[in-house]
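Predict the 3D structure for this chain.
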Amino acid sequence: MNNQRSGSTALVLTTINSPNDALNLLADGCRDHGYHFVIAGDTKSPDDFRLEGANFLNIDAQNSSGFHLAKLCPTQHYARKNIAYLVAIRDGAKLIIETDDDNLPYSTFWESRSMIKTVPICEGLGWLNVYSYFTKTNVWPRGYPLDELQNEIQPIGMYPIQSVHCPVQQGLANINPDVDAIYRLIYNKPVEMIRDGNLALGNGTWSPFNSQNTSWWEIAFPLLYLPAYCSFRMTDIWRSFIAQRIMWANGWYLLFHGATVWQDRNEHILMDDFENEIPGYRGNKKFTKILLKLNLEPGIDNIYDNLLECYKALVTHGFFPRKELKLVRAWIRDLKNLPTKFQSHQSKRLGL
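Done. Predicted structure below.
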């Protein structure tokens, strides 16, 4: 699947809030553009949640969905969003766009998206603070190692321009971009992100990416999985590193592009955010080094195996408890029962 088609695109998020301005704007846009809108609730979601045009999945609806993962995934965790991904895929999505309930879309959010992009690319640079190319403010993505912030950033004009496959694309957020608690505790000022521009990261260039404004094409759907047995502030960041490692094995690129939403941030207790980010401050570089040591096989037919191998290694090194593997296997089992293009390929037996 390359170009986006109306009717095959799903917008996915999770919320414990009542419909707000952001949710209403997103629902309006989905109706206008023919997108499916799937929302995963949780135990704290309002019992009377109603939003025209949205398929709201309360816990009962999730548990009766038929997905193995629904009954295994812990509640009161952002990872309940996994069930919304599965529902969107079951309902025919070929492109999933995910966001959060405090992101308000610009008109560009609804523009057609393409998986193949002709853009500047960078490879083999180690850690790269991508935000440096999209704002003049000294800021960095949540999950970026603090001891890499002094790395020299070369001008974007020095990167070659190529046409590459980018099945995962991170759009930025204006005003309140996704930054860590340390930045907000020290500065906590609005950040102006540019609303155009592109940069694709390939093999050997790391950057965390989040779940706030992210597009996923069908070939990358298995990489959507959000781990459940880690903190709320790390689940999408650690997912991003696993996804990048598997994407490199396939010669795929991660695209960053300008802001297509602005965030009216939900209330947070910043010291709680800081505490929940400590595993990342201390462990993100070790996390990625473990992934780099893995011998992953290229090809769509190996993507499930690679996902499981990544989690096995990270469980061995203590980043996740062993019970995370049960959820990963359930995710794989549920996906394999859905009519995606992966089912036309022979996968290795995973002992499921």
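Residues 344-352 have pLDDT under 50 and may be disordered.
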